[in-house]
Amino acid sequence: MPHGHYMRGTRLDYIIVFGLVLALIFIITLAINPVRALSSVKDERRSDDVRRVMAAVLQLSLDNPEKYQALVERTDGRGGEKFMLGNGQTCAGDWGAYCKDAAVADDCLPTDEIFSDESTIPIDPDAPVYGDFGTGYYLSLLKGELEVGSCGATTGAIRLKTLVK
């Protein structure tokens, strides 16, 4: 090789090196703060679940107005109290202590009042805390404002609000 000339890499060499650097950055980021990375993934799922619950309630108002009205009467007028979605009678307990995001009533709203199919009921990713009786999601209705939220959010509040009839 003549003096003063540098070795040149091919484009493939540069792409491989770039890919390795990106992989190394990803691994270092994950190693530095795995809890935060996993919390973010769980909160993304919680956001999706909150949207599913909100959609189910809004769909209930269209598909079964009588059942929806019963839900409204049960929740509206209780001072904006938030209710954990759960499995009816077995759901009674100290749910307020488990909800990080909001003060939640100790009794639950039975999921069968909202969901027609049990397989569509979302359960919070922290299933050991929730799952058997409570879902980890709450619902509130006050003066026509419906709020659905997650009790287990770790990176910030996850809530949806909408006006309803």
Summarize it.
Helix content is 38%, strand content 19%. The chain is of the alpha+beta class and 165 residues long.
Describe this protein with a few key phrases.
alpha+beta; 19% strand; elongated
Descriptive overview:
The protein has 165 residues and is of the alpha+beta class. The protein has one domain (35-163). Helix content is 38%, strand content 19%. The protein has helices spanning 11-32, 34-63, 65-75, and strands spanning 82-86, 104-110, 134-142, 145-150, 159-163. It has a five-stranded mixed β-sheet, covered by helices on one side.
Low-confidence stretches: none
Biggest sheet: strands side by side, in what order?
A: 2-1-3-4-5
C-alpha geometry = elongated
Number of helices, counting only DSSP H or I runs of 4 residues or more:
3
Question: Structural class, judged by helices and strands?
Answer: alpha+beta
Strand portion: 15-25%
Described by strand count, sense and barrel closure, the largest sheet is: 5 strands, mixed
The rounded distance between the terminal residues' Cα atoms is: 81 Å
Number of domains: 1
Oligomerization category of the chains in this entry:
single chain
Q: How much helicity do the residues have?
A: 25-40%
